[in-house]
Amino acid sequence: MDESAPRQERLVFAGLVGGAQVLGLASVVLTAVWMGHYRGGFSWDGSSFQFNVHPLCMVLGLVFLQGDGQIHTDADTFIYYLHAPLELVGRVFRNEAKRNVKILHGIIHLLALVVSIVGIVAVFDFHRAAKIPDMYSLHSWCGMLTIVLFCVQWVMGLMFFLFPVASSWLRASYLPVHVFCGLALVVMSIGTSLLGITEKLLFSIMPSYSTFPAEGVLANVLGLVLVLFGVVLCYLITREEFRRPPNPEEESLSVHFKTLTEGGTPDSP
Amino acid sequence: MDESAPRQERLVFAGLVGGAQVLGLASVVLTAVWMGHYRGGFSWDGSSFQFNVHPLCMVLGLVFLQGDGQIHTDADTFIYYLHAPLELVGRVFRNEAKRNVKILHGIIHLLALVVSIVGIVAVFDFHRAAKIPDMYSLHSWCGMLTIVLFCVQWVMGLMFFLFPVASSWLRASYLPVHVFCGLALVVMSIGTSLLGITEKLLFSIMPSYSTFPAEGVLANVLGLVLVLFGVVLCYLITREEFRRPPNPEEESLSVHFKTLTEGGTPDSP
């Protein structure tokens, strides 16, 4: 699909991007309300108020920023769709901004990583002060796996796409794996958040949870909002018709790659 | 990619399909061991032994059968890859079996639905006997949403692809949505299973969970196996190079669809 993409399709794309923003922001706000209003607020003194920093940072960093960084920058789709209606301006911006978009992608994910690490330090620090053992629950296992793989994904992305360490052939082979792993990590982050919500509810309000208290309903709604955010995000990134068509530079890379796989002699290594 | 698909790629595909089978079966076996050995076994008498039927049926139905039904039949990929090495036989079988593959896909998913409904009846029946309220937890909300959408997906699939209710144009438009929703439902089923694991552990062994008892570790490992099953499944179904190339019948459908979207006059509605 090129600049002549049906207007309706662009509207659907813009609507889905807008919907994802609303859902992502809603999940951050709901977490802040839950921890701020129902769980007494935030502090950094080893108390349960320090624990409250953990859910907020994880939803903000690993879910919203990590997910949003993918909508806005995956294969330049966002830039393409937003600027395509401006026709020529869009074309120019789209080609010139390639490297800038990659840098923005890296920065958003670095920010996501930093916020997540603050969230993890908050909970480990709280556990130490309250003498609660670490890393025994399924939530902690899934969370640790996710954050370690997220670090690996970030470093790999940096090496492959921002610093020219890898050959064009390696980069072309790695790109779909990078996109798949990015989506898988957002889904794992959402799954881990749902586990965290269930753990927190059962630790805090187990006796009253079954009577549908406001806190329980709010946390359940937060869980559903996170699920919806994940579904919209995955739909946006996996649907063929929302993919930006390759620019001439990428076309030549593709031919180069084809030559290599079909046993021809490439012009350069 | 056609029959000349690199041998290495076919080996990777076969390895991933084999890996998914091992992970899917392992998740069912681990659930059976957890419920059978650590939770006292199975019965249908309203006791907690009846509850134990619930996790087993859900992992078997909504995760293993639903997921496996997609690997084996999504876009005939499995048939194509397994038979392609047999060259001519594969070609013949691939074209002739199209409708049979669809029927198999429908039957596996019907089986998944029936097993899941048994699992849901088991837990509602147990709740009624033990006077435990229903539908208050995030696990129950996610689970109910998943099973309702799974029923809708099954009925839509039946109407669109097995009974010729929809036009070719509608079928072609719906196919990618059907594949996306199928994958989303498996991922939601896995997420809901992880919530169920966490709930069951906190209800049953909360005081000892943090001391790494065998039951807790086994249930956590089950959670990770389910996550891995989901990752391998999604990778298999979303990677371009594992997709079966369209056969002539589908090619003509695609041309027909293109004519429609570009404003031409199709031969038939």
Describe the structure.
2 copies of one chain form a homodimer. Chain A has 269 residues and is mostly helical. Chain A has a single domain (7-261), classed as Four Helix Bundle (Hemerythrin (Met), subunit A). Chain A contains 10 helices and no strands. In chain A, helix 1 (7-38) runs antiparallel to helix 3 and helix 8 packs antiparallel against helix 9 (214-238). The first copy, chain A, is globular, with a radius of gyration of 21 Å. Mean pLDDT of chain A is 83; it is low at 82-94 and 253-269. The A-B interface holds A 6, 132-133, 136-139, 141-142, 145, 176, 180, 184, 187-188, 190-191, 194-195, 197-199, 201-203, 206, 209-212, 216, 219-220, 223-224, 227, 231, 234-235, 238-240, 261 and B 6, 132-133, 136-139, 141-142, 145, 176, 180, 184, 187-188, 190-191, 194-195, 197-199, 201-203, 206, 209-212, 216, 219-220, 223-224, 227, 231, 234-235, 238-240, 261.
What is the assembly state of the chains in this entry? homodimer
DSSP summary: helix tally of chain A: 10
Gyration radius of chain A (Cα, Å) is 21 Å
CATH uppermost class of chain A: Mainly Alpha
How much strand content do the residues of chain A show? under 5%
CATH topology of chain A: Four Helix Bundle (Hemerythrin (Met), subunit A)
Biggest sheet overview of chain A: none
N to C succession of SSEs of chain A: HHHHHHHHHH
Q: How many domain regions of chain A?
A: 1
Based on Cα principal axes, name the global outline of chain A: globular
| Major interchain interface with per-chain residue totals | A-B, 43 and 43 residues
Q: Count of DSSP E strands of chain A?
A: 0
Q: Helical amount among residues of chain A, as a percent range?
A: over 70%
The low-pLDDT segments of chain A are 82-94, 253-269
